[in-house]
Amino acid sequence: MGKLYVVATPIGNLADITLRALEVLKEVNFIACEDTRRTLILLNHYNIKDKKLISYYEPKESVQVPKILKLLEREDVALVSDAGTPSISDPGYKLIRACIERGIPVEVIPGPSALLTALVGSGLPTDCFTFLGFLPRKGLENFLEDIKIYKDTTLIAFESSNRLIKTLQTMEKVYGENIPLCVARELTKIHEEYIRGILREVLEELQKRPEIKGEVVILWRLQDVKS
Ligand code: SAM
Question: Would you state the pLDDT for residue 61?
């Protein structure tokens, strides 16, 4: 029986990959990935050749799981996502669960994730945090109201850069302008930045810009941070 290797890959800077991740990617014949072109950039960068790539992205997950399970009956398979840790707001969970149910070994090769990188760089308390995944596109105001009970934790959400301003405006409406907040953008890339402050300051800074590009994580607290 084979093993499923869940392999974290860089979130921007291609140098952010572990030795063990490279070893596994070199050793396996099959790599399940979201966008084969994105994975090929990484494999070519590390001169990893002749791999069979199986496309495994969200709408195709249920169809691909049985195919990958069949392969795992006889050999190892690595699972990667476009960037970061598979299964964190990325495909992975369904395959991992199916393996566990069938007694197929699963090994996670830890590495980059936008979630923890943003949390640590935000300067907000790290002792307790709550990851919300992607914020809902519809009913955001109600959603933000519902999570008002999360007082003693740093809240973390993924958001697209073109909805960022609108989302922060909705947050201001629900939480007021004074909550501590950080926008972490383009982590590990050339234009990496952390915009930190109270919500109003962060919003004002972003509103000065003609456009906001790239990938972003929003982090906030519903209470003041005591030093
Ligand atoms: N599995 C990935 C991980 O572990 O980082 C997350 C995948 S999720 C589909 C993509 C979201 O993660 C982006 O929309 C953005 O919110 C965040 N993200 C990914 N890379 C990022 C980066 N370099 N800088 C800031 N946020 C990033």
Answer: 87
